[in-house]
Amino acid sequence: MNESAAGERRANISFTGTTSEYFKIWIINLALTIVTLGMYSAWAKVRKLRYFYGNTHLEDGTFEYHASPVSILIGRVIAFVTMMTYYFTIQYAPMASAVIFLAVFLLMPVLLVRSRVFQMRNTSYHGLRFNFQRDYGRSFATIYGSALITVLSLGLASPSAIYMRNKFVANSTGFGKTLFKFGGGQGEFYAIFWKSAGLAMLGLMIFGGFIAVFTGAASSDPWWIPVLVFAFSAAISIYFRVRQRNYVWNTTTLGSNRFVSFLSVTDMVVIYLTNIFAIILTLGLAIPWAQIRLAKYRAEHLQVLLVDDWRDYIASKDSQGNALGEEVGEAFDAEIDIGF
Amino acid sequence: METTAAYYNGNTAGSVQVPVSLQGSRLGYVVNGQDLWVDLGVTTMRPPIARGAWVIELGGGAELHIDDERITSRLASQRSGFIERLEGAWHWALISALVAITSTWALLTWGVPIAAKQVAFALPEDISSRMREEGLGIMDELFFSESRLDEEDRSHVTTLFKKIQSTHPKFESYQLEFRYSEIGPNAFAVPGGFVVMTDQLIELAENEDQLVAVLAHEVGHLYGRHSLRILLQNSTTAVLIAAFTGDLSSITALSAAIPTILMQAKYSRDFEREADEFAFDYLDANGYSDEALSKLLLLLEDSVGKDDSEVPGRFSSHPPSRERVDKD
Question: Does A311 contact B49 at a Cβ distance shorter than 8 Å?
């Protein structure tokens, strides 16, 4: 922690989870999940997140995850039944499956808000819960609006859509009563979008030429072409997301506090690709190592420039108690696509 | 035993370091000069996972976060539950790994197929008849046009099919269809009771026995309700593997797709073998040459010029022809 601007203290976020500890938690979670035919997965999720949050430090405190495994299980059962009905009716009663699809699709803005509310209200720091505003009107406007813009512009205005969703999520999230505020503009999202597109084109030409030269003589396609194509497209997608994540954090404030996110695209590409490689080679046993490594890197590349006294953050009255159905949004993995 | 702990009043995020002391099950603490205590046997405590601060709830949202190991180790020795003990030892990790591997394997090789079979045969027949109209309709659009077969060939194949049908009352509702194929010689069992023979396959067959072999193989698929079972098996397998590896991020989740694809290919090969078995039995019992199926498979392979090495065995939806031939 060192002083920078007047009264501003730079606090690093650190992560103290270790592979040897988490491996044991993970493998017990996995075995119990399988033995209970998936039922334990709700408890497993809670233990995993409690471990990761509890090892994420900011100043003198850690984060804490509070979700009840039973509400997660209820949500998962509802999601599982809906999904199985959907897959089954695709073959036998396409009309019914279309109705299910349409219902889930139309309700998406509600599910997304409920999922966020569940996640935020079950997260705390310094004994104070985070919060997410239940503004369904804005959610419908943002989700449908951004989808419409993307479709009508044939994807060319998708940076505006990403901007809208980021702004909505940041501005609806609160720490206690205090809301985060997104101060960024649309321009940077366009810049990131076109740079990604440019890199993709450039890569396509270079790799295309490279592949053409090397396979010109060979009779069949060598195995490494799909691997190379995958690695390259993953790299572009990581570039696109990392740059957006950095930008969103760096332009978001909470009260007078600011954030510094400095993830490096190269590091993230190396981490992701070696993680996948290690997971495949070890038939999954490297999953805990990969997750700890990624969490550590991500935590340690975010800083908070603290100005406010923590006493200025006051609990929100409605932050206790889960409304029915919050866990359903969570179980559908309803995540607003905001970059990362 | 005395130390300090972080005190949060539940209304703000401000932290205060307060002195705490543990006497038996009573934890004393001092807030704003007031001496207070809490009975640890009664209050709710939130232990950390593996290591870290213990949270002691004081009521009204207030809590103490204690990170001093002299106290937390005492709390842990009293409160440590079943899961904590499992998570704390390497030998349990090893046992869990073995349990995870063997039970996943058993679940996917036996559990899922057995459950799918039970469900498939418990479902009413008329579910399948809905599938019939749609299934064949889609295939007509994608792969088929009207059969160009002459009446003589048609009635010959139909007679052979009727003979198979007469061996079991369940087969009576099955129907034979002829189509011209856009995708080379093949035969299909369409869910709901259709056997589709393509003109190309009928031309390829050298004799009556080979035609019977194909018809019986497809009837074997229908009788075993294979298409319904594979649908059930594939969707449950995808859901199970996704649940087990569920917390992977979207890019890394690709590594979960590989076991799913391998399993689904294995299920498909198993059903092909079962249908082969059915065909062999019929050929045997009705005085046909039991080499007919193998001969036709080899012919089929030659005609498409397919090389067995093209798709690695474990990813293939059909067993290698060589193995299917060597069976008898």
Answer: no
Residues of A in contact with B307 (CB under 8 A): none
Do B232 and B188 fall into the same domain?
Answer: yes
Of residues B275, B235, B107, B223, the one with CA closest to residue A92: B235
Domain harbouring B45, CATH code = 2.30.29.30
Cross-chain residue pair A84–B48, CB shorter than 8 Å? no
Same domain for B164 and B42, yes or no, is no
Rounded CA gap, A302 and A261, in Å? Answer: 4
Question: Smallest CA–CA separation between A325 and chain B, in Å?
Answer: 21
Which residue ranges of chain B lie beneath pLDDT 70? 80, 125-135, 245-254, 304-315, 322, 325-328
Which helix (H) or strand (E) segment is A106 a member of?
helix A94-121
Q: How far is A48 from chain B (nearest CA, A)?
A: 8
In a domain, B102, yes or no: no
In-domain check, residue B91 = no
In the prediction, which pLDDT does B250 show? Answer: 56
- Residue A299 has which token pair? 């935590």
The closest of B282, B277, B320, B316 to B298, measured between CA atoms, is B320
Helices and strands in chain B, H and E counts: 12, 11
| CA distance readout (Å), B52 to A257, B49, B104 | 27, 7, 33
Instruction: Measure the CA–CA gap between A100 and A86, rounded to whole angstroms.
Output: 7
Report the residue from A35, A237, A315 with minimal CB separation from B11: A315
| Whole-number pLDDT of residue B325 | 65
> Would you call A313 an interface residue with chain B, using a CB distance cutoff of 8 Å?
yes
Residues B124 and B173 in one domain: yes
Contacts of B51 (CB under 8 A, 6+ apart): A21
Residues B43 and B111 in one domain: no
The DSSP bridge pattern shows strands B34-39 and B194-198 to be unpaired
Length in residues, chain A: 340
CB atoms B12 and A311 under 8 Å: yes
CA distance B283 to chain A (A): 33
Last residue of a domain, one of B43, B69, B84: B84
- The tens digit of pLDDT for each residue in A193-227 reads 999 999 999 988 887 787 777 766 555 566 777 78
A 46-105 residues inside an 8 A Cβ radius of B: 47-48, 50-51, 54-55, 60-62, 64, 80, 83-84, 87-88, 91-94
Longest CA pairwise span in chain B (Å): 106
Sign for the CA dihedral angle at A100, A101, A104, A106 comes to negative
Cβ neighbours of residue B269 under 8 Å, at least 6 residues apart? B316, B317, B318, B319
Instruction: For residue B34, give the 3-state DSSP assignment.
Output: strand
Residues B141, B49 share a domain = no
Q: What residue of B is the nearest CA neighbor of A314?
A: B12
Q: What residues make up the domain containing B191?
A: 107-326
Q: What is the pLDDT of residues A125-165, one digit of tens each?
A: 999 999 999 999 999 999 999 999 999 999 999 999 999 99
Q: Return d(Cα A81, Cα A79) in angstroms, integer.
A: 6
Interface test with A, best of B252, B309, B314 (most A CBs within 10 A): B252
